Amino acid sequence: MSNKLKIILFFSIATIFIVIMSIGLKDDIRGIEKAVLSLNQPMTNLAHIEVLENKKAIAFYEWGTAPGEYFGMAILKKNLFGWHFNGGSTSQTPKDYKLGWSFSNLKGEFSDYTDIIYGKIFDSDIESVLVTTNKGKQYSAKIIEYNNGARLWFLITDGVELLGATVMGLSKNGEIIEKIPSR
């Protein structure tokens, strides 16, 4: 087989592989969205999907209408029949805070992840979210923008306990805009 033919064959196989992978990812996104919508919560809007392990993901979503608006996360697993809801939590959107937050224990759901702390950002001046554990360790949360400017934040750990952590929403100058708990 000539080198030219080998190169053409290689690029053909690589292209087919990339197309198959992108189709699989689009199917996963549709499957995850379908699983979240199957919760039958009114006015559900998918905000972000975080794939954590092979065939396991967390989807952040909001649902409801004013004054009963909620934000939460769903733990999803994929099997032979597609993506399925496997647990999660939602809480009512806080009206008196600039930063929403919730905690969930992930032990038993994922092999590599133990805790998640997350919420919506309500104040446009919050540029970063810092989480301080009870042992004094600090971690920067990931911030995601979705739906034309709405933002959420989250921190997922692999053994670091987040229960009872302090969450701070900071301005671009590092000023504390919101601190939960406020002690």
- The helix/strand class is alpha+beta
How many helices?
1
- Largest sheet strand order: 1-2-3-4
Shape label: globular
* Cα gyration radius (Å): 20 Å
Give the topology string: H per helix, E per strand: HEEEEEEEEEEEE
Largest sheet: 4 strands, antiparallel
Quick synopsis:
The chain is α+β, with helices and mostly antiparallel strands. It has one helix at residues 3-37; strands spanning 45-53, 56-63, 70-79, 82-92, 102-105, 115-121, 128-132, 138-140, 142-146, 150-157, 166-170, 176-180. The strands form 3 sheets. A 4-stranded antiparallel sheet has the order 1-2-3-4.
Can you offer a commentary on this structure?
By secondary structure, the chain is an alpha+beta fold. It has one helix and twelve strands. The longest helix has 35 residues, at 3-37. The protein is globular and about 70 Å long.
